[in-house]
Amino acid sequence: MAGGPLSHLTVAVLGGDRREAEVIRELLGLGAAVVTAGRELAPDPEGARRAALAAEALQSAAAVLGPMPGVGEDGRVWAPMAARPPLYLTGPDLARLEPGALVLVGRANAHLRGLEREGAIGLVELADDDEMAILNSVPTAEGALQLAMELSPLTIHGSTSAVLGMGRTGLTLARLLAALGSRTLALARKAADRARAFALGHEPLPFSQLAAIAGRLDFLFNTVPAPVVGRGILASLPDAAVVIDLASAPGGVDFAAATDLGRTAVLAPGLPGKVAPVSAGRLLAGVVTRHLAEYSGEGGVGEWSSREGALVSP
Ligand code: NAP
Q1: What is the C-alpha separation between 77 and 26, in angstroms, rounded?
Q2: CATH 3.40.50.720 segments of the chain
Q3: Residue 243 host element (H or E)
Q4: pLDDT given at position 203
Q5: Under DSSP, is residue 222 helix (H, G, I), strand (E, B) or coil?
Q6: What is the mean pLDDT of residues 218-242?
Q7: The pLDDT of residue 312
Q8: Considering only Cβ atoms within 10 Å of each terminal Cβ, which end of the chain, N or C, has fewer?
Q9: Residue 109 has pLDDT above 70, yes or no
Q10: Which of the listed residues 229, 246, 274, 279 should we mutate to test ligand 1's pocket, taking the one with most ligand atoms within 8 A of CB?
Q11: Which residue's CA lies nearest to atom 29 of ligand 1?
Q12: Third-level CATH fold of 10-128+276-304
């Protein structure tokens, strides 16, 4: 869109998957110029320009979008759609950016954080962004249910489930389980989180009760990134129980013990990009464009609710 609210911006998009295709579409629609690298196997929207290397894409870019899984300490960019992996983002590459350029990425490395501290770039780590995490909890929870249905011989309806952790993902998942007719036990260490779970109609419990209820669980979902499901809990579960660990690697379940005990237990990382890349991409697009609009002083851009919600006109 010529003359759109982001028409003064060139955004470099490095690596990523189908989610970023939705972001590119949105950026182009708002008038931004988009240059991509490491996405040759993806059908990017018409209007985006492809660069052979990250360095070329960064040349005179005012903003950079990296993938949700992030950039490794060695500068390697997660790029499953690159024709010639690996894709690297190095110090000399970053030196090509416009001064004060904004870098948005799921998880940054120490070099990017150092550049931010020096004031050379602005940095948004989307994995820490509350808005992003709450929105992402929707495809994550749906993906967890999909896995649960595939792995269990039981219906969710009429089952007993426990959700460990009442944070952003846990709350959304508990809501979906209850909506499908599962008796939902909500475990949280904070009394206020248990109160919230109670108010939403779940059965709140402290973690000290997990061992006592394990023998009644058909589904155990973990969202706590700490070792909370050990051998004793796993041994107490019914044989047909399914354990799904959503927490970031290495998760919170003792998988070696689960294998010893013959339990069905899976670590399920990256569900939004796997189960609903287009929806997850649209949510990501809203968050990214809002950050870019704030960065460039444009109001009213990136308010995802006005696009997703149809009841509110932008
Ligand atoms: P969150 O909002 O921070 O929720 C995490 C919950 O775990 C909080 O309620 C926290 O309680 C609790 N917790 C942390 N350490 C604990 C401990 N030692 N004992 C008991 N409770 C503890 O995070 P989130 O956004 O829901 O994400 C949860 C996890 O899922 C993260 O590891 C995230 O990276 C991952 N994730 C995975 C996917 C996927 O596709 N699998 C998608 C999104 C997120 P307190 O407030 O008391 O600390």
Answers
A1: 22
A2: 10-128+276-304, 132-272
A3: strand 242-245
A4: 98
A5: strand
A6: 98
A7: 42
A8: C
A9: yes
A10: 246
A11: 247
A12: Rossmann fold (3.40.50)
Tell me, what's the pLDDT at 99?
87
* Whether the Cβ atoms of residue 168 and residue 134 lie closer than 8 Å to each other: yes
β-sheet bridge partners, residue 222: 164, 245
Residue at token pair 């950016």: 97
Q: Where are the beta strands (DSSP E) in 148-233?
A: 160-164, 183-187, 203-205, 219-222
Give the mean model confidence (pLDDT) for residues 244-271. Answer: 97
Give pLDDT, residue 313. 39
Q: How would you write 93-137 as a 3-class SS string?
A: HHCCCCCCCEEEECCCCHHHHHHHHCCCCEEEEHHHCHHHHHHHH
Q: CA 78 to CA 86: how far, in whole Å?
A: 8
Ligand 1 centroid, distance to 117 Cα (angstroms): 27
Ligand 1 proximal residues by C-beta, below 6 Å = 133, 136, 140, 165-170, 188-190, 193, 207, 223-226, 228, 246-248, 268-272
Q: How far is the CA of 219 from the centre of ligand 1 (A)?
A: 18
SS3 279: helix
Percentage of residues in the chain having pLDDT higher than 70? 94
Residue holding tokens 């993938």?
67
Ligand 1 atom closest to Cα of residue 246 = 41
Identify the pLDDT of residue 44.
Answer: 86
Look up tokens 């290495």; give the residue.
Answer: 250
Rg, Å, the chain Cα set: 21
The pLDDT score that the predictor gives to residue 299 is 58
State pTM to two decimals: 0.90
Query: Nearest to residue 14, comparing CAs of 56, 64, 52?
Result: 64
Contact present, 115 and 94 (Cβ < 8 Å): yes
Ligand 1 atom closest to the CA of 271, numbered from 1: 40
How many angstroms does the Cα of residue 247 sit away from the middle of ligand 1? 6
Q: Ligand 1 centroid vs 223 CA: distance in angstroms?
A: 5
- Mutational test site, ligand 1, from 131, 140, 169, max ligand atoms within 8 Å of CB: 169
The second-level CATH assignment, the architecture, of 132-272 is 3-Layer(aba) Sandwich (3.40)
